[in-house]
Specification:
heterodimer, A: about 350 residues, Rossmann fold, five-stranded parallel β-sheet, B: about 325 residues, alpha/beta, 2 domains, seven-stranded mixed β-sheet
């Protein structure tokens, strides 16, 4: 984006806030990847490496009482919504202090109190769920909105289409996005759909759609703001295709040899953190010294988080039996109404 | 209809009992709303929500696109945000389109990340109405194997109303299997006061000493008919109506078989891997010392539900099957 467009629309503090979360996401996920390679993390390890701007951008555009149904490469959104790096690492290590207390792993985190709908591996499953949350907000006359996303792969699921259609028919306050990182595991876009831009799908539902540079955090933020404002004003859903590139394998076990190396080389130059740094320098909001300070700060935060996670207890075997059913008390403690209004 | 207790003078059908439960719960709790295909102006395929649109408006009687996965998913989201959705499957058969949302999202959310999903899915199920393979199924077995779901299947107007109210007030996802064959065929006078039938409690519909018939849904009425015929021969059947399929009321099942020492497990669903198989296994595991004869299962064969009358008649369990099995078991 043009510098003038950015600085006239985004406050300095907001840009710096986003830069911090880009760095924190990268540091945290790099640490997770290193732990995985050391065999200290069991299970899958799905990162947003090279795609951090999407989650950081849309999550920064939210109000406190809004709700997200994130994609599995949205670590920045979890962090901005208040899941701490310590909780993330506890989750990865299967500790009781993680958001799912060891019942589920890695990015399968959710917490209604922090407005996060828990991720489900069946991609696009949470898009209909997001429309239902938006329906509740609309029925109660609240001004809250939902942002819900999936990947290019997930847009082939029926649930994607059923959710988009229902949201459009009922003009629900929801913003849909697709992280188009060009591969669904190993399957390139051309073998997934006969269109080159996922945004085409929105037309079928009478829904406005936009293509956005997913590696430009300012562009993602401003697009999200537009969609969110429309949703909040009762004008219905919007669809954003955030174009980006998956720089690692599907999971860290996957060397992704099916991706042409030149494609990765090309996208490496468009790294979202480097892009954000160039923007901050041009705007006069930051310099190398500042970036170095932030880098040191997030590294320390991640090490402290790891210490917390490692010291945390593992769950005991018999805890497997707990929580299959909710009790009336569980339900009465569930945060479902607007926190600001309460 | 202005108060929640103004219904219910005179006899009501099973279908009217369901309709009353919905209406009274919607009046009692403004969070309760209905979603489904053709439930608005048309009043639903079986007319259970006739007149509801005028009374509650198009946001609480929400006609949906033809997309079961989409609207069940939406109900899950609305439930987590504090509403109390009741979803109507036009026929239970179509619930297969929403299987993923029910088993992967609704059933697991509380276990995985502590989010309760208080919702109800009404599923008109069962045969005997010439509906063929896609309008007669008994899909309860699929969901019986999915921890986190409660399943209920009433056999009388009283239970139909009380179980639906209990399902709506439950903090978990509940699938409510209502038997289409019973809709307009059975009637009862219901209490005028608000009541619920607790989830998880079976009911002895006929006490007896010789053989326990453990069953649910429309089959309860066949078992009662068989019991009446066999009484003349001195065979005294006890008819245990499970009412709740998950979680099973094991105590009620065991206590009946401890008394009679003989058990027939009866259901309309296919025989293999159904709820009857689990009940039989539980009896073998827990009541072995009490049993004085083999556990007998009566169920539909392992085929889809057929259309043509002689085929469907052959497919469905009959009163004569129960009578024959009971005579044999009594003589064992």
């Amino acid at each position: 984006m043009d510098l003038a467009d950015v600085t006239s629309q985004i406050k300095r503090a907001d840009l710096l806030h986003m830069y911090y979360y880009l760095r924190l996401t990268r540091a945290l996920e790099d640490r997770i990847t290193a732990l995985y390679r050391q065999g200290r993390i069991v299970g899958g390890c799905y990162t947003s490496h090279g795609m951090e701007a999407i989650a950081v951008g849309y999550a920064s555009a939210l109000e406190r009482d809004d709700v997200i149904a994130p994609f599995h490469r949205d670590m920045g959104a979890f962090l901005i919504r208040g899941i701490t790096p310590g909780e993330v690492l506890a989750q990865y290590l299967g500790k009781r202090t993680g958001p799912t207390k060891g019942k589920d792993g890695n990015v399968h985190m959710g917490d209604l109190k922090r407005g996060i709908i828990g991720f489900v591996s069946h991609l696009a499953d949470n898009l209909p769920v997001a429309t239902g949350a938006a329906l509740a907000f609309k029925m109660r006359g609240e001004s809250r909105i939902v942002v819900a996303g999936t990947g290019d792969g997930g847009t082939s699921r029926g649930d994607f289409h059923e959710a988009m259609n229902f949201a459009a028919v009922r003009k629900l306050p929801v913003v849909f996005f697709c992280t188009n990182n060009q591969y669904a595991y190993s399957t390139p876009l051309r073998l997934q759909m006969a269109i080159t831009d996922v945004v085409e799908r929105a037309k079928a539902y009478g829904m406005p759609g936009e293509i956005v540079d997913g590696n430009d955090v300012a562009a993602v933020y401003l697009a999200s703001k537009r969609g969110i404002a429309k949703a909040r004003a009762g004008e219905g859903p919007t669809f954003f295709e955030f174009k980006t590139m998956r720089m690692h394998g599907h999971s860290e076990h996957d060397p992704a040899k099916y991706v042409p190396p030149e494609l990765l080389e090309e996208w490496k130059k468009r790294d979202p953190i480097l892009a954000a740094e160039r923007l901050l320098i041009e705007a006069g909001y930051g310099d190398e010294t500042y970036f170095h300070e932030i880098l040191e700060r997030v590294k320390k935060e991640v090490e402290a988080a790891l210490e917390f996670a490692e010291k945390s207890p593992l769950p005991e075997g018999p805890e497997v039996l707990e929580g299959v059913f909710a009790t009336d008390a569980d339900l009465s403690h569930q945060a479902t109404h607007s926190r600001s209004a309460a | 209809m202005t108060t929640a207790t103004s219904h219910a003078t005179g006899e009501v059908t099973y279908l009217e009992a369901i309709s009353q439960a919905l209406d009274e719960e919607m009046m009692r709790d403004e969070r309760v709303f209905l979603m489904g295909e053709d439930i608005g102006q048309y009043g639903g395929a079986f007319r259970i929500t006739e007149g509801f649109l005028d009374k509650y408006g198009e946001w609480r009687i929400l006609d949906t696109p033809l997309a079961e996965s989409g609207f069940v998913g939406a109900a899950i989201g609305a439930a987590m945000m504090g509403l109390r959705p009741v979803v109507e499957m036009q026929f239970a058969d179509f619930i297969s389109c929403a299987f993923d949302q029910i088993t992967e999202v609704a059933a697991k959310n509380h276990y995985r990340w502590g989010a309760a999903v208080p919702m109800v899915i009404r599923a008109p199920f069962g045969g005997g109405i010439h509906g063929g393979p896609f309008h007669s199924e008994c899909p309860e077995g699929w969901f019986f194997h999915s921890p986190g779901l409660k399943l209920v299947a009433p056999s009388t107007p009283y239970d139909a109303k009380g179980l639906l109210k209990a399902a709506i007030r439950d903090p978990n996802p509940v699938i409510y299997f209502e038997h289409k064959f019973l809709y307009r065929r059975i009637k009862a006078t219901l209490p005028t006061d608000d009541y619920i039938v607790p989830i998880g409690k079976a009911d002895v519909k006929r006490p007896g000493n010789d053989i326990s018939v453990i069953t649910y849904g429309a089959m309860v009425h066949l078992a009662l008919e068989a019991a009446q015929m066999l009484a003349k021969e001195g065979i005294d059947l006890e008819v245990v109506d499970l009412r709740t399929l998950a979680p099973l009321d094991k105590e009620a099942i065991f206590s009946s078989v401890h008394k009679t020492s003989k058990a027939i497990v009866l259901h309309e669903d296919n025989k293999t891997g159904g709820i009857g198989a689990e009940v039989a296994a539980l009896l073998a595991e827990e009541c072995f010392d009490s049993l004085d004869g083999p556990i007998v299962r009566i169920a539909a064969p392992d085929t889809p539900v057929p259309f043509s009358t002689p085929l469907e008649e052959f497919f469905l369990p009959k009163t004569s099957d129960i009578v024959a099995a009971a005579r044999k078991l009594a003589a064992y």
